[in-house]
Amino acid sequence: MNKTGIFLSDGCEEIEALTVVDTLRRTGLEITMISINNSTSVIGSHGIPFIADTTFENVNFDEYDAIVLPGGMPGTIHLGEHEGVTSIVKDFFAKGKLVCAICAAPSVLGAAGILQGRHATCHPGFEEKLTGAITSTDPVVTDGNVITSRGMGTSIDFALAIVKYLKDDAAVEELCQKLVYKK
């Protein structure tokens, strides 16, 4: 079974984070909400509190196949400043594991140097932070083992792209029917 981790910090965009968690769990994929705070308590960018499953220090990342970075401010800044997040992003990319980021968070991938020569997208205005990327305005871009997306309004499509990568088109179609979501 594929195991995915999603990094959460105070100031993350709640919909971008929780849509991915909910969508993956609906398809039977295992996803762990990993707080980079000193506790499992997280306050989203719109003041919505929620509880992560665990904290960064308690995770064995060797057990994971994919990592997701939600956007939001100042959540993206916190992710980019966390040395452990940067290290894991680089390690996952180098090992061919799936690395995903939405909204402003692809800027963390750009700063980590993993977008060089890759197609990527992000929230409008962050394109210059996707160092070396071939930028796009597509809602979701998959290039090898990297998936990026534009923002809250593309959260479902972003989550479905992750499901497609980790499972298949049939899992996406089945979920879309259950959600009454037309792709």
UniProtKB/TrEMBL annotation:
Domain DJ-1/PfpI, chain residue ranges per copy: 6-164
Pfam families: DJ-1_PfpI
SUPFAM superfamilies in UniProt: Class I glutamine amidotransferase-like (SSF52317)
Gene3D superfamilies for the chain: 3.40.50.880
GO cellular component, one term: cytoplasm
NCBIfam families referenced in this protein's UniProt entry, alphabetically: not_thiJ (TIGR01383)
Protein name as catalogued: DJ-1/PfpI family protein
Protein species of origin: Roseburia zhanii
